[in-house]
């Protein structure tokens, strides 16, 4: 993170980092922010952080909590669904970068590793065999986050996480998808008029369907890049969250997402970290209502297939 970005963060958070209750004086706000950013951006233990900044463990823990809570409270200011002219800019951005039409976002999920919680630890074991919580992301053509949803145990399937998130409700509100636009997801998601998935490659795809999958993949790679950038900058998300309280994990992760967006908005770039792709599970749903919705998605996908050059 460059100095200008740090100063910007300090300016918007300084007031929340001041101690208001009577008692011992707290350390300076800039010092608190440096401690929190170091803890978020590295895999150092609290012992190492305390030695580096010459503070006690309790002081370091409180600094991280103050900063992450303040960032969490400001998340709506920096993580926003694209609407109006901004949505049009995103659609154009995806068309320029990938050639896929009318796209306002790409969606995917990732695991955030945690220590085994004390309550129902088995629920947090994901299909890869370690304890985690789910993070679902939607991003635009710049890998800027437009929505994040976090907190479900790792054993919950991606499709269920999606159905419980706000984005699932967005699909039924046409005003969230100007010009009949859509977001792109992999085969773990259910095909919808506003959420397009690739064709399942059963070895019998037509050339047009293969071309569609190619352009779809070129556009959807933005969310994979976004996850790589997020975990590359906030490396505590690559290893194991430095906390045991489940109720604080969502705030911490959302705070990381806010920092990610602030850095992108300010042009503070970082090298992407490659994240291994999770295996895709395609679950069929034969419910009549879902079948009607799927049919609208099938029709729209076929129109795009025939129009792609």
Report on this structure.
The structure is a single chain. The protein is an alpha/beta fold. It has helices spanning 3-13, 29-41, 46-53, 57-73, 75-78, 84-98, 158-164, 166-170, 207-233, 246-265, 288-307; strands at residues 103-113, 132-139, 145-153, 182-184, 195-196. Strands 3-2-1-4-5 form a five-stranded mixed beta sheet, sandwiched between helices. Helix 6 crosses helix 9 (207-233). The protein is elongated, with a radius of gyration of 21 Å. The relative contact order is 0.15. Mean pLDDT is 86; it is low at 280-284.
Largest sheet: spatial strand order: 3-2-1-4-5
Major sheet size, sense and barrel closure: 5 strands, mixed
Helix residue percentage: 40-55%
The strand count comes to 5
What ranges have pLDDT less than 50 throughout 5 or more consecutive residues? 280-284
Rg of Cα set:
21 Å
Question: What structural category arises from helix and sheet content?
Answer: alpha/beta
Shape assignment: elongated
**Averaged pLDDT:** 86
Fold topology:
Blueprint: H1 3-13, H2 29-41, H3 46-53, H4 57-73, H5 75-78, H6 84-98, E1 103-113, E2 132-139, E3 145-153, H7 158-164, H8 166-170, E4 182-184, E5 195-196, H9 207-233, H10 246-265, H11 288-307
Parallel strand pairs: 1-4, 4-5
Antiparallel strand pairs: 1-2, 2-3
Features:
single chain, 309 residues, 48% helix
Give a quick summary of the entry.
The chain is α/β, with parallel strands linked by helices. The chain contains eleven helices and five strands.
């Amino acid at each position: 993170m460059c100095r200008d970005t740090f100063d910007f963060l300090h300016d918007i958070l300084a007031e929340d980092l001041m101690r208001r209750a009577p008692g011992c004086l707290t350390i300076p706000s800039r010092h608190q922010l440096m401690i929190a950013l170091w803890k978020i951006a590295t895999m150092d233990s609290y012992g190492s952080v305390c030695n580096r900044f010459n503070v006690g463990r309790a002081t370091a823990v409180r600094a991280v909590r103050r900063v992450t809570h303040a960032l969490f409270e400001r998340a709506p200011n920096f993580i926003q669904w694209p609407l109006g002219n901004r949505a049009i800019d995103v659609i154009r951005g995806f068309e320029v970068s990938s050639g896929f039409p009318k796209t306002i976002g790409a969606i995917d999920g990732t695991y955030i590793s945690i220590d085994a919680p004390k309550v129902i630890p088995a629920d947090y074991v994901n299909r890869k065999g370690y304890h985690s919580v789910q993070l679902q992301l939607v991003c635009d053509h710049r890998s800027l986050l437009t929505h994040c949803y976090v907190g479900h145990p790792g054993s919950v399937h991606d499709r269920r996480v999606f159905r419980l998130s706000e984005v699932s409700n967005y699909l039924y509100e046409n005003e969230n998808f100007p010009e009949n636009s859509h977001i792109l997801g992999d085969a773990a998601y259910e095909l919808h008029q506003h959420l397009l998935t690739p064709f399942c490659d059963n070895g019998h795809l037509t050339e047009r369907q293969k071309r569609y999958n190619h352009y779809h993949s070129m556009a959807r790679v933005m969310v994979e890049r976004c996850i790589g950038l997020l975990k590359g900058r906030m490396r505590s998300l690559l290893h194991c969250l430095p906390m045991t309280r489940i109720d604080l994990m969502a705030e911490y992760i959302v705070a990381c997402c806010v920092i990610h967006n602030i850095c992108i908005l300010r042009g503070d770039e970082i090298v992407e970290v490659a994240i291994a792709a999770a295996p895709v599970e395609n679950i069929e749903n034969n419910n009549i209502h879902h079948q009607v919705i799927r049919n609208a998605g099938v029709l729209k996908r076929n129109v795009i297939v025939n129009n792609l050059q």
